Amino acid sequence: MARPQHGGMRDMTQGSPAKQILLFTLPLLVGNFLQQLYNMVDSWVVGNYVSDAALAAVGTGFPVIFFFSSLFMGLSTGGTVVIAQFYGAGQMDRVHDAVDTIYAAFLRMILPMTAVAMLVAKPLLHVLRVDAAAMDEALTYLLVVCGGLIGSVGYNFNAGILNGLGNSRTTLLFLSVAAGLNILLDLLLVLGFSLGVLGVALGTVISQAFSWLFGLFYINRHFPELRIRPFRARLDGKLFREIVRIGLPAGLQMSMVSLGTMVVLSKVNSFGKAFTAGLNVGNKLDSLAFLPTQSLAAGVTAFVGQNMGAGREDRVRQGVRAAVLAADGWTVFTAVILCFFAESFIGIFSPDVLVIAAGADYLRCVMPPYLLFATLFVLNAAMRGAGDSVFPMLNVAASLILIRVPAVYLLADHFGPHVMFWGYGIGWVSGCALSVWYYVTGRWKRHFRAPEKREGQ
User: Fold this and answer.
1) Count of alpha carbons within 13 Å of 242, Cβ hemisphere only?
2) CB-CB neighbours of 353 under 10 Å
């Protein structure tokens, strides 16, 4: 069956692998930049027009929110892989079945997860040892954003569906809508109505919900073969199990990373709100620098999924090699820039000398070994595209939690907070080595399951 390619759908089983990944990645990169931009605007607004306590509150809330949304993001990744493999095999009827299954699962799970997130928000903040000066604002931010998880998760499902079809241009449109609306709402609610952290949280929730609903309307109007019917979606049990097989380990991996981040944040918070605010700003900047690698990884997952589905293993290694080289080159360049001009960049978000010093220390610890993380990130994405999510999960759990977290604590206790973040690189050394070894062995290909047709076909 022919693979439709209208409206931004991209058949990545033909043509230059590097070019196909690049063309898919560029719109995704712009979209991810917009997403990071409005996150940075949140920090800039509260850091300059509210207080350092508010800046610390917003930074503390992010890993908690990410922890609760990780399961759905993992299912979105599983959906991307399954859809990419069906699309690569030319089975558009099964693509539609997968879309139905994804939405049926989403709507059955989102309300219970939202309720749990809101119930445990306050206890989690106490576990994280949030500074008393930032506690009330952190709780406000967390409750509002957790209450609006449906918009964020819904957007990610829309994006996952389209990414599986090689379509990153439409995802860019959805993110543009969210970013523009979020920035406007930040300025209106925080500067105009003086709502502080509450205004930032409301802006985030409203913009994400609008982006999700706009995405539903747009997909149904321009991609009739997908026909997303949220409240009439049919869950295919066999397909759901395959999505879970791929997506659950990815979701657990993201949850564990977030959990590890919260454990590190608990230590960071013990050094005061200025140190926490500095970490928040530094983390925004290194996340911004990492966007090209993150976008390349998403492109690699879709590329590998389509080509494995089409039986084109020869193209897989070519594309992955090109993506790793591009990610490593970019990471080295940004590490040099951020290390040399760390104070200037941090100073954009806060004039406080303690915040600037803490953020600069963070960047100079984290950026030099970032090359290792970029390599393991792209290779793990490739394995996931072939259906192997278990090894990336175990690798990340070992390197980013069992090694990195104790290293951060030991460095902080014995040498002080300003060198504690070298623990990140210590964890990345083992993670990168394991990812390279496993990828070279080719064992990840054993987890690929050829797409099955509907019964009776």
Assistant:
1) 24
2) 11
User: pLDDT (tens digit, 9 = 90+) per residue, 72-111?
Assistant: 888 888 888 889 888 888 888 888 899 999 999 998 899 9
CB 285, CB 366: distance < 8 Å? no
Helix (H, G, I), strand (E, B) or coil at 54: helix
The pLDDT, as a whole number, for residue 248 is: 85
For residues 136, 191, 35 and 391, what is the CA-based torsion angle, rounded to 10 degrees? -10
Residue 453 lies in a domain: no
Candidate from 151-155, 386-390, 434-438 with smallest mean pLDDT: 386-390
Closest CA to 215 of 182, 169, 170: 170
Beta strands of 206-317 (E only): which ranges? none
Q: CB-based contacts of 394: which residues, under 8 Å, 6+ apart?
A: none
Mean pLDDT of 392-398: 88
Residue 337 has pLDDT above 90, yes or no: yes
Please report the pLDDT score of residue 1 as a whole number. 45
455 in a domain, yes or no? Answer: no
What's the rounded Cα separation, in Å, for the pair 14 and 238? 30
Q: What is the extent of the structural domain holding 252?
A: 14-447
CA–CA separation, 76 and 315 (whole Å): 24
Per-residue pLDDT reduced to its tens digit, 309-318: 888 888 999 9
Residue 433 lies in a domain: yes
Q: What is the pTM of this model?
A: 0.78
DSSP for 361-418, written as a single string: HHHHHHSTTHHHHHHHHHHHHHHHHTT--HHHHHHHIIIIIIIHHHHHHHHHHHH-GG
Structure tokens at 126: 């106490």
**Predicted pLDDT of residue 367:** 93
Q: pLDDT (tens digit, 9 = 90+) per residue, 229-250?
A: 888 778 888 889 988 888 888 8
Residues 6+ apart with CB under 8 A from 227: 96, 99, 220
316 is a domain residue: yes
Please tell me the total number of residues recorded for the chain in this structure.
Answer: 457
Any residues with CB less than 8 A from the CB of 369 and at least 6 apart, and which? 424, 425, 428, 429
**What's the domain count of the chain?**
1
Name the E strands within 64-144.
none
Q: Is 328 helix (H, G, I), strand (E, B) or coil?
A: helix
**Amino acid letter, residue 179:** A
